């Protein structure tokens, strides 16, 4: 069986200069996910944030493979559950891609207004993190940022587009890592 887990983990590790702890969410229909699917947990480094990243969310046969990462001010098993659930939806529901939104079904963290996620370019890390070309695929894996957003921000994005929402984020100079931040719209 072809495995992408090692090169994906190495890609993240070399970029974030940290060794992850692989985590597995053992509840729900995990049998629908690839056998080596993991969520990689990275301890805080230069950003002083926890980082959670999917590993083997997409398989070699997928035309547009993606992996997602999420930043958080706190370590939490909720991030492992969230990314596993999103990977399951991606694999068994509707394939996700850049600029799609997902409904978390709960606040990102307790007390947060952010209960949705925007799949965004990894603006904080750039194209070196975004694109991972593996020898077993003609299409590079896109490592994209799952940015927690509010319902009203999601509605604004649906109505006016991702670029308009990103302009609102930039104008508001919002703190993407603050689970208690107000909506920018």
Plain-language structure description:
By secondary structure, this protein is α+β, with helices and mostly antiparallel strands. It has one domain. The termini are far apart.
Name the descriptors.
single chain; about 180 residues; alpha+beta; eight-stranded mixed β-sheet; 5 helices; globular
Short structural summary:
The protein is α+β, with helices and mostly antiparallel strands and 185 residues long. It starts with a helix and ends in a 13-residue tail after the last helix.
Structural class: alpha+beta
Helix amount: 25-40%
Task: Work out the radius of gyration.
Answer: 16 Å
Q: List segments where confidence is low: pLDDT < 50 over at least 5 consecutive residues.
A: none
- Which word captures the global form? globular
Number of domains: 1
The total of beta strands comes to: 8
Q: What is the succession of H and E elements?
A: HEEEEHEEHEEHH
Count the DSSP helices. Answer: 5
Rounded mean pLDDT score? 93
Largest sheet: 8 strands, mixed
For the termini, the CA-CA separation is 47 Å
Question: How much β-strand is present in the residues?
Answer: 15-25%
């Amino acid at each position: 069986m072809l495995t992408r887990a090692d090169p994906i983990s190495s890609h993240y590790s070399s970029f974030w200069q940290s060794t992850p702890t692989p985590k597995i969410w053992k509840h729900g229909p995990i049998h629908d996910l690839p056998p080596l699917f993991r969520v990689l947990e990275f301890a805080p480094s230069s950003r002083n944030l926890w980082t959670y990243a999917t590993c083997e969310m997409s398989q070699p046969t997928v035309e547009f493979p993606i992996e997602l990462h999420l930043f958080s001010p706190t370590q939490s098993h909720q991030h492992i559950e969230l990314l596993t659930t999103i990977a399951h939806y991606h694999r068994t529901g509707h394939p996700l891609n850049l600029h799609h939104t997902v409904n978390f079904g709960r606040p990102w963290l307790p007390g947060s207004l952010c209960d949705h996620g925007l799949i965004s370019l990894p603006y904080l890390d750039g194209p070196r993190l975004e694109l991972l070309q593996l020898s077993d695929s003609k299409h590079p894996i896109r490592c994209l940022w799952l940015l927690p957003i509010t319902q009203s921000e999601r509605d604004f994005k649906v109505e006016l587009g991702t670029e308009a929402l990103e302009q609102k984020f930039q104008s508001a100079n919002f703190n993407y890592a603050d689970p208690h931040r107000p909506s920018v719209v």
